[in-house]
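For the sake of transparency, this paper describes our internal protein records without simplification. The record that follows is passed on verbatim for readers who wish to inspect the format:
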Amino acid sequence: MAGWTEGELDTIARTDELEIAPRREDGGRHGPTPIWVVRDGDDLYVRAYRGRAGSWFRAAVTVGQGHIRYDRAYVEPMLTGTAREAMLRLVPR
């Protein structure tokens, strides 16, 4: 199971915010939404400002795929089964 590289983790952790664009059920992408990210060891966490009611959060949970953008680089797909287990997990709080 592939995970984030140390370089990716360091770059993302130094970034003030990311843009997240979950995939829609029709295969398109929602527009990018700025979010904060926190690194904990080899994992990355984001939080939905509006909680479970946030449109990007609902789309990410429903479809399970999307993109994040940081420093002009893309990581895709962000929410595959592999990513949820070992990379970027969305955690509502």
